[in-house]
Amino acid sequence: VSSTARKARKAHFNAPSHLRQKIMSATLSKELRTKYNVRSIPIRRDDEVMVMRGQFKERDGKVTQVYRKKWRIHIERVTRDKVNGQTVPVGIHPSKVVITKIKLDKHRKALS
C-alpha cells in the first residue's frame, strides 16, 4: 500500500470488482453493531439500508443493485423522474447509508 496520494487514487479507481466489493462497505446501525460486534460490512443486494446524507436523507429501502463499476448502490424508492416520464434509480454511495437489516446467507452466518 502506497502512501503516495497519486498511487493510492490510481489503485482505488482502477480496483478490480472483487476489491471494489470490499471497498463498498457500509456501517451497521447501532443495534446491529452491538449484536454482531462489527462496525461495517460490504453491502449486498437485499440488505435494507437507510440513507443518511443528501437529498434522500432518512429514506429507507432494500438494496436492488450494487453497481460496482460506478461505486454506487440503487435502493428501492430512491428514484428520480426523467423529463420523458421514465423513472430511474438514483445512485447512492455506500458510505452515505447505514445498514438496518442484513440479508444473512451461508457466508454471512459467521457474523453471528
Task: Write out key terms for the chains shown.
112 residues, two-stranded antiparallel ribbon, 21% helix, globular, alpha+beta
Written overview of the protein:
With 112 residues, this protein is α+β, with helices and mostly antiparallel strands. 21% of the residues lie in helices and 30% in strands. The chain is built from three helices and eight strands. It has a six-stranded mixed β-sheet with strand order 2-1-8-3-4-5. A two-stranded antiparallel sheet has the order 6-7. The mean pLDDT is 95.
How many β-strand runs? 8
First-to-last CA distance: 31 Å
Count the DSSP helices: 3
Task: Tell me the structural class.
Answer: alpha+beta
Mean pLDDT: 95
Largest sheet: 6 strands, mixed
Per the principal axes of the C-alpha atoms, what is the gross shape? globular
Strand and helix order = HHEHEEEEEEE
Describe the strand arrangement of the main beta sheet, using strand numbers. Answer: 2-1-8-3-4-5
- Fraction of residues in helices? 10-25%
The stretches of 5 or more residues where confidence is low (pLDDT under 50) are none
Question: What is the radius of gyration?
Answer: 15 Å
Proportion of strand residues:
25-35%
